Amino acid sequence: MLSEKLTITNPSGLHLRPAGVLSQTAMKFKCDITIEFEGKKVVAKSVLNVMSAGIKTGSEITLICNGEDEAQAMKAVSDAIKSGLGEN
């Protein structure tokens, strides 16, 4: 299991478009990918779950990857978040 703390930098938080980018990136991997935010854990492969978490710009999240391709998943998803999920 790998985990990394990240800050959401895109201007409008995880609304539909960036949540979709995050989920599409996560779906490319076999491992379980979850996002922990304010005591809640959501499945990163579900756009609705990611949106329902209410993650705003400047929020700190913990990205957790667990499974056979966790290292590749962690790099891809964290790079997508760090690059602003298509909005920066």
Automatic annotation (TrEMBL):
Query: Where does the protein end up?
Result: Cytoplasm
CDD domains, per database record: PTS-HPr_like
Under the heading PROSITE patterns, the entry gives:
PTS_HPR_DOM (PS51350)
Q: What domain of life?
A: Bacteria
Q: What is its main location?
A: cytoplasm
Domain HPr residue range list: 1-88
Task: List the Pfam families.
Answer: PTS-HPr
Q: Indicate yes or no for the key word Nucleotidyltransferase.
A: no
Keyword Cytoplasm on this protein? yes
Keywords carried by this UniProt record:
Cytoplasm, Phosphotransferase system
- Got a GO cellular component term for this one? cytoplasm
According to UniProt, the name of this protein is: HPr domain-containing protein
Record's InterPro entries?
Answer: HPr (IPR050399), HPr-like (IPR000032), HPr-like_sf (IPR035895)
Source organism of this protein record? Johnsonella ignava ATCC 51276
Its Gene Ontology biological processes?
phosphoenolpyruvate-dependent sugar phosphotransferase system
